[in-house]
Amino acid sequence: MRILHLIHSEGVYGAELILLYLAREQQQRGHQVTLGSMRDPGTPPTPFETLAAAYGLSVAPLRIAPRPTPRVRGQLLSCARDVQAQVLHSHGYKANILLGLVPGGARPPAVTTLHGWTTSKGLSRLRLYEWLDRQAIGRLEAVVVVARGMLELPALRALAPAKRHLIENGIPPRATRLADLAAQAVAAPPPALLEFMRRAPTLLAIGRLSAEKNFAQLLEAFARARAQVNAAHQLLIMGEGPQREALARQISVLGLTSSVQLGGYLAGADRLLGQAAGFVMSSLTEGMPLVLLEALQWRVPILATSVGAIPDLLAGGAGRLVPPGDLGALTAGLARIMQAAVPESIGEADERYSSARMAQRYLDLYETIT
């Protein structure tokens, strides 16, 4: 089967890595896979494109204007014809909108994966795109969500049941991922970060520094828990985003400059989990977070909010759950990790969340719509 994946990537985050794992698994099964990388005209090669090439995947750089005009739709369809695509697979609202505006008979069958879904407030261009996205997905042949709870979103419930599908994310074995990083000559974590983690037991959080990750509340909860139990624990937050300056100010105001670090973006940041005393996810919203699957593979104590697919991932005591946005519960959970001489329970990712299983489920879906 000839498959064209479409994504507009601003970096290499969870959705991009899941796509790379999926595409490689599909290619290893003998399918012809192309990654259509959508960016504005004149954009140089992106980190996602470079990494995809290192994975041995075919990349079609689509330098198209960020507007759903007839010319842009024509460029997208031209790419599909060039690779003789039999199925189109969209990963994000920009590709969804373009595909949704093309009549079904004028393009190959199309699938979209909703890796996560946030809602903007107020009047903005992003709010308009979100509205267009919700209209567009109804015109595609299949809509995939990565978390069962997403099926209850109003925009999804409005779709015909036959169009809605749940396919959970999956990742390769840890040894495979580490070998990938070595083969791609991805730099090891900076010595300064490793030295920081060696100073005292360190809790690790990984994610974009944006409002939905709720790192501001995590900092407040960490400060309270540390004081309550008189612990020497540290907190390391890995990621970049628009809240970096605000979080840095908050760290200073809370008097945490010696015990909390913002480590920035690091390719293969999950390698730090091997040195961590626990992993914390304070998100207000999630789909099926890749980093939580990684934490399960590293077998570290986990504290996470009960959003998206997280309760399913941590079922059976694989981690501790707290309600999203609940400062008291998050504080108590952190204090419990800090006080535990031996972790109460450590989970482990199972075959259900393997990239091989994920890839086969998508291939089965493609067969039903082509």
Structure explained in plain terms:
The protein has 370 residues and is of the alpha/beta class. 39% of the residues lie in helices and 17% in strands. It is built from 14 helices and 13 strands. It has helices spanning 14-28, 47-54, 70-82, 93-100, 125-137, 154-157, 174-183, 191-199, 215-229, 244-253, 290-298, 310-313, 327-339, 355-369, and strands at 2-7, 32-39, 58-63, 87-91, 110-114, 142-145, 164-166, 202-206, 234-238, 260-264, 278-281, 302-305, 320-322. The strands form two sheets. Strands 3-2-1-4-5-6-7 form a seven-stranded parallel sheet, sandwiched between helices. Strand 4 (87-91), helix 4 (93-100) and strand 5 (110-114) form a beta-alpha-beta unit. The radius of gyration is 21 Å and the shape is globular. It starts with a strand and ends with a helix.
Offer a quick outline of the entry.
The chain is of the alpha/beta class. The chain contains 14 helices and 13 strands.
What CATH architecture of the largest domain would you give?
A: 3-Layer(aba) Sandwich
Q: What's the CATH class label of the largest domain?
A: Alpha Beta
CATH topology of the largest domain: Rossmann fold
Give the overall pLDDT as a whole number.
92
How many angstroms separate the termini? 10 Å
Order of helices and strands: EHEHEHEHEHEHEHHEHEHEEHEHEHH
> Number of domains in the coordinates?
2
Rg over C-alpha atoms, rounded to the nearest angstrom: 21 Å
Features:
370 residues; alpha/beta; Rossmann fold; 2 domains; 7-stranded parallel sheet; 6-stranded parallel sheet; 14 helices; 13 strands
